[in-house]
Amino acid sequence: MTPVQSGAIPLFMKNKDVVVEAVTGSGKTLSFLIPILEKIHRRSHKLAPSEVGAIVISPTRELATQIAKVLTEFEPFLQNIKHQLLIGGETSLEEDIATFQEVHPDILIGTPGRLEDILSQKRGGVNVKELEVLVLDEADRLLDMGFSVSLNKIMGLLPKQRRTGLFSATMTDGLHELVRAGLRNPVRVVVKVEDLVGGGGQRTPASLHIGYILCSTSQKLLLLTHLLRQESANKKTIVYFATCASVDYFYKLLSRLPALSGFAIHSLHGKMETKKRSLTFKSFTDIPAGSPGVLLCTDVASRGLDIPDVDFVVQVDPPQDPKAFTHRCGRAGRAGREGKAVVFLVRGKEETYVDFLKVRKVPIHRWDWKGGPVITEDVDEDEMDDADREQDERGVSQKQEPEDDAENAEFLKGLQKIVMTDRDLHDKGTMAYVSFIRSYSKHEASFIFRSKDLDLGSLARGYGLLRLPKMPELKNEKTGGGIEGFVPADINYKYQDKQKEAVRVKKLAEYKAKQAEKERKAAEQGGQNDKKRKQIHKTSAWSEKQEAKERKVDRQLKKQRKREYLKRVANEVEDEDMDGDEDEEDSWEALAREERLAKKVKKGKLSAKEFDKQVGNMFGEL
Known about the structure:
The protein is α/β, with parallel strands linked by helices.
């Protein structure tokens, strides 16, 4: 037995609730499957056809399928124990109920949604009164994915007199809440790997070597191509991206790269149809040993999966959730095998992530991507000479990035040529670009991965885009029709799909017709307005012009009187010896007299010159 199995199996067999935390690839699956089989096999009386003895809950369909596959290995020896896989997507709820009533399984394995559906359906006929064991595999991920409501409902339907086990490589605060709610006096089993160099423990297997490469945003795809050709010429590799749109786009792009023509490339993410996901996963796992294969995926394939012959993992985009970093790397170096994992970090902006991982007990070293020793040990700063230290601070070590920028420029031109062949590729690239920027802005380690430091121009070049999308993040960055580091291509590229191209041409023609119609109407409207203005100018009566002049004079008079009045008031305030009451009364009388005269001017009873004489100002001469 592995350490986690020797620690967890005896406790589970002694009717203890357990919370097991162990490094990825340490054998946790058998730690709960063997106690389940033992308990059901040793029952004094066999379970009734509708009764279930154990339930295993998994966060993803792929992991649930893998657990069921492991359980199948025991069927030749325990033919009286049956199980059923409940994951949804491939079969309907009615079909699952029919299968249950036909097979009469003793163990149910599935995802929370479908398990909740079948347990809450009375017509399903599932009887859980004799349930002995409940297992939550990758329990922290179950909570992170928002299954807490379904989990609480499932646990409310199960009997309290049961054994419960929580298994995961990492634990979270939400998991402790679940422990208090669903477990009784649990025993915690923690299996760590001893760090022989720095002392203490670490969260990754000792046989797994993790490295990092510092590069610019636009160099990631070139580095990925180099690494696949060097490290994966005869093995399987898993490559992680941040978003589903990125997986879709780079799957299409990398499949057309001449440098990777000998690789069998697959894609997997959470938004794919269930049947397609299952077929993709099976196709990748069935690739024979010694054949190069690449699986592009998101974190949907980061937990618990044990894919044979995977010894290399590349993280093009660091995960949003720092806990997922360990799980991603753990797809390699499983069960004592040698494994390698590498992550790309943007030079000058994301290096702090290395120190962050070391604090989280994840050993990581600088990676030599050009061959030679794959992992280079970190050098003590006190032992570095001044030249090495200066080079390290600038992040321009030859071991960290391609020396030849011309090589990367030529590589990116090749990407753009591929994108030009099909407009659908550029559409997918645009979606991937936008989704990555939004994902980056929601990073949990936002103090390291700051969206304001993201080089949008270099990112667009690295994606092989021909033009930039319209999005809020680019509004303040536009200079000369583009952003710094990116020059949009002036080319009319088409869809390879004739039907899509016909729709695009039709929409473009309709758009141009609408624009032309708008311009024509605007021109007509402008001509009519000009004509109206000319007519008004020609037909305006002399009396109307005279009235307008008089109104203008009236406004000027009022403004002049107001200014003079305010000036007189200010003078009166400054003169302390002057009798304020009398002056104020005189001022109001004068103002009232001016107002009466102004009304006469307005009615035509008094001319402007006469008004000026009586008021005593010379404004009328202007």
